[in-house]
């Protein structure tokens, strides 16, 4: 059972590394983005191979299982990613509104 979960984790991590490399080669990722996602993919693979690495953290924070800790980390990541996406979307929306407003005013002045 654990070996199957580890294998799935390794395959997922390798997929992250492959996609990261692919997007970097297409110049869709900057070096910083490439570095961040490569680090996350590598950490995912290492934690899949050596889950006992998390045992000191699990004991210190008194989690019943390692899975509980990983689920909490997953939710924290999803909330942070959602918040970041919201902020970037709002900034883009404001810039677009400003651009449309400016173009409408310029077009109205030409008439």
Describe the structure.
This protein has four helices and no strands. The mean pLDDT is 93. α1 (2-25) runs antiparallel to α2 (31-49). It is elongated. It has 111 residues and is an all-alpha fold.
For the largest beta-sheet, the strand count, sense and barrel status come to: none
- Rounded average pLDDT: 93
Estimated structural class: mainly alpha
Q: SSE order, as H and E?
A: HHHH
Taking Cα atoms only, what radius of gyration do you get, to the nearest Å? Answer: 21 Å
Number of continuous helical runs: 4
The first-to-last residue Cα distance is: 72 Å
- Silhouette: elongated
Q: Number of domains in the coordinates?
A: 2
Record field, number of beta strands: 0
Work out the helicity level: over 70%
Percentage of residues in DSSP E strands? under 5%
Low-confidence stretches: none
Please provide a brief summary of the model.
With 111 residues, the chain is mainly alpha-helical. It has 2 domains: 1-49; 56-111.
Please describe the topology of this protein:
Blueprint: H1 2-25, H2 31-49, H3 55-60, H4 66-110
Helix pairs in contact: 1-2
């Amino acid at each position: 059972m654990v070996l199957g979960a580890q294998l799935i984790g390794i395959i997922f991590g390798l997929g992250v590394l492959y996609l990261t490399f692919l997007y970097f080669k297409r110049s869709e990722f900057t070096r910083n983005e490439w570095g961040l996602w490569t680090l996350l993919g590598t950490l995912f693979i290492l934690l899949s191979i050596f889950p006992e690495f998390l045992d000191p953290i699990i004991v210190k924070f008194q989690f019943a299982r390692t899975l509980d800790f990983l689920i909490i980390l997953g939710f924290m990541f999803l909330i942070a990613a959602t918040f970041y996406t919201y902020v970037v979307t709002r900034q883009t929306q404001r810039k677009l509104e400003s651009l449309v407003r400016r173009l409408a005013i310029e077009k109205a002045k030409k008439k």
